[in-house]
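Consider this one:
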Amino acid sequence: MATAAASGSPPIPSEVAPQTRSGGALRKIDRALGIIIAVPTAVLVIVEVFVLLGGVASRYVFHHPIIWSDELASTLFLWLAMLGSAIALHRSEHMRMTALVGMLSPPMRATLDVVAIVAGLSFLLLILPSAYDFAADELPVTTPAMEISDAWRATALPVGFAVMTAVGVVRLLAVGNWRHVMGALIVTAVMVGGLCLQQPTLENLGNLNLLIFFVGIVACLVFAGVPIAFAFGLATFGYQALTTQTPIVVVVGRIEEGISNLILLSVPLFVFLGLLIEMTGMARAMINFLASLLAHVRGGLSYVLIGAMYLVSGISGSKAADMAAIAPALFPEMKARGSKPGELVALLSATGAQTETIPPSLVLITIGSVTGVSIAALFTGGLLPGIVVGAILCVVVWRRNRSEDLSHVSRASMREIGRTFVIALPAIALPFIIRGAVIEGVATATEVSTIGIAYAALAGLLIYRRFDWQRIYPMLVETAALSGAILLIIGAATGMAWSLTQSGFSRDLARAMAGLPGGVPTFLLVSIAAFVVLGSVLEGIPAVVLFGPLLFPIARQVGVHEVHYAMVIILAMGVGLFAPPFGVGYYAACAISKVHPDEGLKPIAGYIVALLIGLLLVAFVPWISIGFL
C-alpha cells in the first residue's frame, strides 16, 4: 500500500508549485519551512531506531528490560507521524487519485490542483481547534512508566496540524494565477455552505447520510485529486458535525488512536530498511546471483525480476522501494536483449501485486494492527501465496519469450554462480533473519525492523563496503515523508471506520454478507470484487483500515480462516492497486521505469489475467495460506 502507499502521487504541477513564484520571499519561506520540519523529523527516525534496538538488546542480551522504552517510542512515534505528514505535504507526496484529473485540460487540472490545496487547508483549519482541546484534555493523564503528562505525546497532533496549515498557506500564496485560487475558494465555500444550510434535513436522513458523506463526498474529493487522507478527514468531520451530536474532539481521539498504534512504528523503520538495502548494494547482490542462474534461458531476466521482487519484498515493507531497487539493476540489460519498455513496466507492476503478501508487507502489518490477527501468523501465511502467484506469472513470461534470441548470451560458469552466491549470501539471509526473529518470538514485528537496519548497516560497512553517508539524511527525510503520508491516511480512515461502526453500518453489513447465498465461495468472490475496486480507488492501507474491522469478524462467522481471508483481500487489493487505469501502483512503476503509462496498457492485460487466476487459486485452496501455520 501500500504501497502503495509508497508511490505517493505526482507533485503538484508547475502551475501551482512554489518554484514558479516571481518573488523570492515565498521561496525562501518555503525552503526554510522545509528545513525546520525535516531536520527534527530525521532525528526522530534515528532515535526511534536506537530506542527500539536498545529495548531488544536490554531484554535478550542483558536480560534487564527497559520498562519505559515502548512508552518513549510511542510518544516519539506520534511526533514522527505528524511531522512526517507535514513533510509529505511540503513535498507534494500525499497519496492522490490523479487518473481522472490527468485527462482534463491544463486549465482545469490547475484549478483542481488548487482545489486540492484548499480542501486540505479546510480540513486542517476545521480540525485544529479540536486537536488542541484533545491535547489539553491529556494534561492530567500521567504515563505509567515515565510518569510524565500524556500531553507531551498528544501535543504532536495540534503541532502537526498547525505545521501542515502553514505549509498549505504558503502553497496557496505561491499560486501564480489568482483566478484558480478564487475558483477553488468559491467551489469550497459553496460546498461547505450548502451542506451547512442542509443540516436540518441531513439530521433526519439517518443512515442515508453514510451514502452522502462516505460515498458521494469521498468519491468527489478523491476523483478531484484531493489527497486521500484529507478526503477521508473532511467526510468524517462533515458527517459528525452536521448529522450527530458527537464532539469533534472524539474524532480526533480516533485519529490519534489509528496513527499511534505501536505496531505501525514498523512502517517507517521498514521503509528506511528498504532504502538501506538499495544503498548498500544488498539488493543488487541478490539480483546478480539470480541472474547468474537464469540469465541464459529464454525470458531469464524476467524470471530474475519475479524472484528478486520476492526476495527484496522480504526485507522492505515498501513496494516503491522494492521496485526502485530492482528496476535500475535489471532494465538496461533487459532492454539490450530486446524487451520492450511496455513489457518491462507491465511485469514490474504485476510482481508488485504478486508480492503484496510477502512479509514484512506494510499491508500485513496494518491488518494485524486493526484486526488483531497475529502478525507472526500473517508473516508465515504470506509466503506461499506469493510463490503460487509468481509461478503463474512465470507461465506468462515463458509463453511470451519462447522465441527470444539468446545467441549472444553466454551461460554463467559454476564458478561464477558460486562467486555471486557467496557475495549475495549475507543479503539473502536477511529476510530469513527478519521472519525467524518474529516467528520465534525474539522480537516483535516492530522491533525486528531495527535488527534488520543494524544488520544491513553492518553488512554495507563491513561486507559490501558500500555506505554513502551523504545519502543518509535524504533517506531519513524520504522515510519520514512516506511514513507520514501512510500514517495520516490510517488515522483518517480509522476515524471514518469508527463513524461507520457507530452508525450501525457494521451490523447491517454483517447481516448482509452473512446472508449471501452460496456460503463461503460467494462471500470470497464478493470480497475479491470489492477489494479489487477498493485497491484501485483507495489503495490497500486505507481500504484495510476502513473495512478490515468490519469484514474480518464476518469472515470468521462464515467459516473463513482470518489468515486465509487476509491473503485473499491483500492479493485482490494488489490487483486493483497495480492495474490501470486507476491503480496508483501502476503509475509508480511507470515513473520508476521511466516509461509512459500508455506503453504498458496492452502487455499488462495478460499479467492481470494471471494475477486473477492466482488469486482465485489462493481463495479456493485455503491450504496455500494456512498450511504451514
